[in-house]
Design brief:
Helix content: 55-70%
Strand order of the largest sheet: 1-2
Strand content: under 5%
Number of helices: 9
Low-confidence stretches: 1-21, 39-80, 92-115, 369-373
Shape: rod-shaped
Structural class: mainly alpha
Length: about 375
């Protein structure tokens, strides 16, 4: 009976036709064991060895060092269908937690976070709020300066140039107004002289006894009217040039000066605001306000510096242009007036040619564009 036990054990081991041991059962055992071990255990090396019937060890599992976080103990055998189902369930959906704290389950794939749509009403409200705050600060700064309580930034050299420009503008406007009055009166005188010359010429034809006397006076009045028209053309040219200088060139520069003064008021307003915050306590509530005020102050300082530079450049070019324009116009005005009252008709006409002034003949329409071509 003692000899039958090994025979029975050997009989249970399948043998092939060549006399070799059939290890198909060993391979199926190893495959089932690998499936039963979950992938999350993180085993670096796993070797499953099965010895024959004469070995003292059967089903020995050799494993390497364990790496990774420890996992809770799992059952030794897990059905592959349950593992696959759990993996498919995890891969099939992703959990997205928005900023609001609500968990929403979305399909897997690239997630695109769109920006919140801007509300036009809120943007306009924000612009109105910033404009109101800026207007309040600037108004407070202006009132403080007028009451003598606030400080203002002053560029002495630039302010002196601006004051001179404004004073010169008033004087040039006065010259322009007087020149226009002279032109109007001269036009009326020329018109009267022309009518008087026509009356003398008519009487010269009807009065035989005073034919020559009326004729001389008619010629004189007509000559004076002609010279007056030439002088009127020179004066009108002088008026047009000075009007362009005063009401366009100087006015454009003064518009830049107004923008510079507005930038200066804003700069002083935000400078005063920053100084008040710096004098106060520094804590967690005031530090963000100080940083924001510092940022706004720096932005308005850059704007103020830019406008000051623009005003300086425009004043420089304006002075050069003013000297050149007024030099030519004053020479024209002097020569025309002197030649007219000296009775030098040739010199008067030469003055107009020198400055390229063309007179309009009374009673003659301007040429059409076809005739000009």
């Amino acid at each position: 009976m003692a000899q039958e036990s090994p025979k029975n054990s050997a009989a249970e081991i399948p043998v092939t036709s060549n006399g070799e041991v059939d290890d198909s059962h060993e391979h199926s055992f190893n495959r089932d064991l690998k499936r039963s071990i979950p992938s999350g255990l993180g085993l670096s090396e796993t070797q499953i060895t099965s010895h024959g019937f004469d070995s003292t060890k059967e089903g020995v599992i050799e494993a390497g060092a364990f790496q990774g976080s420890p996992a809770p103990p799992l059952p030794s055998v897990m059905s592959p269908s349950r593992v696959a189902a759990s993996r498919l369930a995890q891969q099939g959906s992703d959990v997205l937690v928005p900023a609001g704290g609500q968990r929403t389950q979305t399909k897997s794939g690239p997630v695109i976070l769109a920006d919140e749509t801007k509300n036009p009403a809120m943007e306009k409200l924000e612009l109105v709020r910033k404009w109101s705050l800026n207007t309040y600060k600037c108004t407070r700064q202006i009132i403080s300066e007028k009451l003598g309580r606030g400080s203002r930034t002053v560029d002495l050299e630039l302010e002196a140039q601006i004051d001179i420009l404004r004073d010169n503008k008033k004087k040039y406007e006065n010259i322009l107004r007087l020149a226009q009055t002279l032109s109007t009166q001269l036009f009326q005188m020329v018109h009267t002289q022309r009518q008087l010359g026509d009356a003398f010429a008519d009487l010269s034809l009807k009065s035989l006894e005073l034919h020559e006397e009326f004729g001389y006076n008619a010629d004189t009045q007509k000559l004076l009217a002609k010279n007056g028209e030439t002088l009127l053309g020179a004066i009108n040219f002088f008026i047009a040039s000075v009007n362009t200088l005063v009401n366009k060139t100087i006015e454009d520069t003064l518009l830049t000066v107004k923008q510079y003064e507005s930038a200066r008021i804003e700069y002083d307003a935000y400078r005063t605001d920053l100084e008040e915050l710096n004098l106060g306590p520094r804590d967690a509530n005031t530090l963000p306000k100080i940083e924001q005020s510092q940022h706004l102050f720096q932005a308005h300082k850059e704007k103020y510096d830019k406008m000051r530079n623009d005003v300086s450049i425009k004043l420089k070019f304006l002075e050069e242009n003013k000297v050149k324009v007024l030099h030519n116009q004053l020479v024209l005005f002097h020569n025309a007036i002197a030649a007219y009252f000296a009775g030098n008709q040739k010199q008067l006409e030469q003055t107009l040619k020198q400055f390229h002034i063309k007179l309009k003949t009374p009673g003659v329409d301007a040429p059409s564009w076809l005739e000009e071509q």
